[in-house]
């Protein structure tokens, strides 16, 4: 039947991709407040019925969804920010349940990556509105009695803390873009905060290396690349690929 077709290859199939793109299109186009709320409700149902689509295999659909939801966490409308924050919380909470209440690593990483992308794409993403949305997500975790005695609330707090670190560091980088030494120090602090997310740590180490090369500090750049190589080797070893 249709549901089995949609679940083929953990939801990574052409039919599910077309269905998901319809949902995504509703988020990417300007909608009324009422329409958006209904889209958020429909997305909850999709996530609940087809969790493997977002938490297994490729991360492209989870990534795209996190990006669009986070944009609405910066909405000028308070009601939309609240709805978007609660939907993002639902995505994380559902991920946690899907792993047998062990972690929500997939959504955690995609949220951080999406925030990093939004910094470049959306002006004011680190403002008061977005900070309020982060607080809503934290409150949802703290008031969720079912998972009160699990690691989930503290993991959510860690995620929002990491997001704030990225936003603060990015703002500082803009202030010190003409001070190479300060800029590299900020890049290093940010890379260090990603000890548990190799993909993003590598991204910031690469960025540090480019700054060193630009300034003629080739030894320092080489050290960054050695660190990246070690990071990749460690990751591949954990995956059993080398």
UniProtKB/TrEMBL annotation:
GO molecular function: guanyl-nucleotide exchange factor activity
Gene3D superfamilies registered for this protein in UniProt: 1.25.40.410
One GO process term, biological-process aspect: small GTPase-mediated signal transduction
Superkingdom: Eukaryota
Any Pfam family the entry gives: DHR-2_Lobe_A
UniProt keywords, alphabetically: Guanine-nucleotide releasing factor
PROSITE patterns: DOCKER (PS51651)
DOCKER domain span: 192-242
The family this protein is said to belong to: Belongs to the DOCK family.
Protein name, per record: DOCK9 protein
Biological source species: Hemiprocne comata
Gene: Dock9_0
């Amino acid at each position: 039947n249709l549901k089995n077709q949609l679940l083929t290859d953990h939801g990574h199939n052409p039919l599910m991709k077309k269905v998901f793109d319809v949902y995504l299109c509703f988020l990417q186009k300007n909608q009324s407040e009422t329409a958006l709320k209904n889209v958020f409700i429909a997305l909850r149902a999709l996530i609940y019925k087809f969790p493997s689509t977002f938490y297994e295999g490729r991360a492209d659909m989870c990534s795209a969804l996190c990006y669009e939801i986070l944009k609405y966490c910066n909405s000028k409308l308070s009601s939309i920010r609240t709805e978007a924050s609660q939907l993002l919380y639902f995505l994380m909470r559902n991920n946690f349940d899907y792993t047998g209440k062990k972690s929500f690593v997939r959504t955690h990483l995609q949220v951080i990556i999406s925030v990093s992308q939004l910094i470049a794409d959306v002006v004011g993403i680190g403002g008061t509105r977005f900070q309020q949305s982060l607080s809503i997500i934290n409150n949802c975790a703290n008031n969720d009695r079912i998972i009160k005695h699990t690691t989930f609330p503290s993991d959510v707090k860690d995620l929002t803390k990491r997001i704030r670190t990225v936003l603060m560091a990015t703002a500082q980088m803009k202030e010190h873009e003409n001070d190479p030494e300060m800029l590299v120090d900020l890049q290093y602090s940010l890379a260090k905060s990603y000890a548990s997310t190799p993909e993003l740590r590598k991204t910031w180490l690469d960025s540090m290396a480019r700054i060193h090369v630009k300034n003629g500090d080739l030894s320092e750049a080489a050290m960054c690349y050695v660190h990246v190589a070690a990071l990749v080797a460690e990751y591949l070893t954990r995956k059993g690929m080398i």
